[in-house]
Amino acid sequence: MLSLGIDSGSTMTKAVLFDGTNIVKKKMIKTSANPKESMESLYHEMKTEDVVYVVTTGYGRDLLEQSNKKVTEITCHAKGASFLWEGIGAVIDIGGQDCKAILLDRDQNVVDFLMNDKCSAGTGRFVEVMSKILGQEVEQLSELVKGKTPVPISSMCTVFAESEVISLLAKGEDAGNIALGIIHSICRRTAIFAGKMPLDGEIFFTGGLAQVPIFKEVLSYYLQKEVKTSVLSQYAGAIGASIIGWQKAKQNQ
To answer: pTM score, two decimals?
Structure first.
């Protein structure tokens, strides 16, 4: 018996097959202009005869007709993060277009959360825009900023920050210093946002930026505690959806 969890994110769509104990298979693709097509593509690629329950989450969770259950990304990220790192007390997720902070109790249940989805500043999309201006891929940022000194970025509005970065480059400022300044701005903003809740236990960092070491390092600095990550951090929502699906299937037996 397998369950399938699909997380329709603003940037990437992720899918995970779960057997009750282990992740059997995973796949990630870019979310197209038509999120429904991306979800259906992953569904047909991942669906097998052993899949008895499908759970969808994320922005497009209502778009897949074959879904047995739609669950919010807050619940799925919490469930997936708890699977990846036992005993965590909070989850910080920096997604493509939003930022989430989720507080968990000792039994890994969600007790509170905050979400910022009104402004792209401090999200993966913001980082992608800034990286393109600097002529770098997001994955290259950790190498680019080695030994650099962060340049203060005064604006966190994407439009104004773009103009500010272009101006700094025109003045001859080092691209690595600018990149590190952007990273510090994002992580400081995220830490202030998440700090509105009591972050007492271990913190797990999810989303695409969790795969970039420098973000983990700087976010830990501003939170004044080491955040935990996993090579599967970006799959947290899909993992949580697949776990919920397996639990539902088990109840139905």
So the answer is: 0.91
Helix axes 158-170, 175-194, angle to 10 degrees: 150
Instruction: Dig out the tokens for 72 from the structure.
Output: 């919010």
Residue 185 DSSP one-character state: H
Q: Which residue has the tokens 């510090």?
A: 184
Instruction: Check if the beta carbon of residue 234 is closer than 8 Å to that of residue 215.
Output: no
Task: Read off the pLDDT of residues 188-241 as tens digits, 9 standing for 90 and up.
Answer: 989 998 999 998 889 999 998 999 999 999 999 999 999 999 999 999 999 999
Residues ≥6 apart with Cβ < 8 Å to 85: 202, 204, 228, 230
For residue 5, give the nearest of 77, 53, 48, 45 by alpha carbon: 53
> Rounded CA gap, 171 and 181, in Å?
16
Which residues fall within 8 angstroms of residue 12, CB to CB, at 6 or more apart?
Answer: 28, 29, 30, 31, 96, 208, 234
Place of tokens 């879904």: 67
Please answer whether residues 80 and 236 qualify as being in contact, where contact means their C-beta atoms are separated by less than 8 angstroms: yes
Asked whether the beta carbons of 227 and 85 are under 8 A apart, the reply is no
Q: pLDDT tens across 102-124, in order? A: 999 988 899 999 987 655 566 77
